[in-house]
Amino acid sequence: MAREGAVLAGAGAAILLQVAHRPVAAGVSGHSDFTRDPVRRLVHTLQYVYAVSLPEAEPVRDSVAAAVGRAHAPVHGADAGGRAYSAADPDAQLWVAATLYWAAERVRWRMWGVLDAGAAEEMYQEAAVLGTALGMPRELWPADRAAFGRWWDGRLAVLEVTDEARRITGDLFAAEHAPLWLRALMPTARLVTAGLLPPGMRDQLGLTLDVAGFVRAERLWSVVRSVYPHLPRRVREAPSWWILRGLGVVGGRRAR
Predict the structure, then answer these.
(1) For the purposes of burial, counting CB atoms within 10 Å of the CB of 150, is it exposed (0-12), middle (13-18) or buried (19 or more)?
(2) 0.70 exceeded by the pTM?
């Protein structure tokens, strides 16, 4: 599933769920300006996701994970309420990995519907690498999809959406410093993101949808479902191909 470009439709939901976690929001607010350059942030995230999950990226896997680790090393401190945060915190790593899996799974379900139980479980187990590649202990990843569902619901119930998270949300979709083409896409991105988010989280982040909004979102997914699966595989996998080329991976080998 990581190869499918459609999964990128869940990027906004994953990011906002991450900053709905108080320590992550504090880290992003204090050490990142990704809302000024969201494309750069997305590219870096995709480099990591593809490097740790796609077999042909094995030659660059360790170097990419190490680069992410170095970038995270200075991300620590105390939030506005005096609570400590750190990008090296295994719980924060678990949450970020979980949001990436959850968002991708929501898009997959929207696009292709119910998946065979065995395949769904295999995909879930493989997603653990999104956290373990940065040092998260494997045992923190819930044992199976059922356990993940219970854990996820429990975490959503206790998330603290801060003013920082709401500010980041507003800045992200305002896209004041983004290229014109990206700013033009933001109303659609906001609609898709709001539709994917859990209702309570959507409301807390200020992305409430009215009935007309839900109808527009459903129509958009209906159109995408009717077109995307029939595109050539090369087109559907273009983002992963492009990112891997940027990392120097060509045909499963690292270019010299």
Answers:
(1) exposed
(2) yes
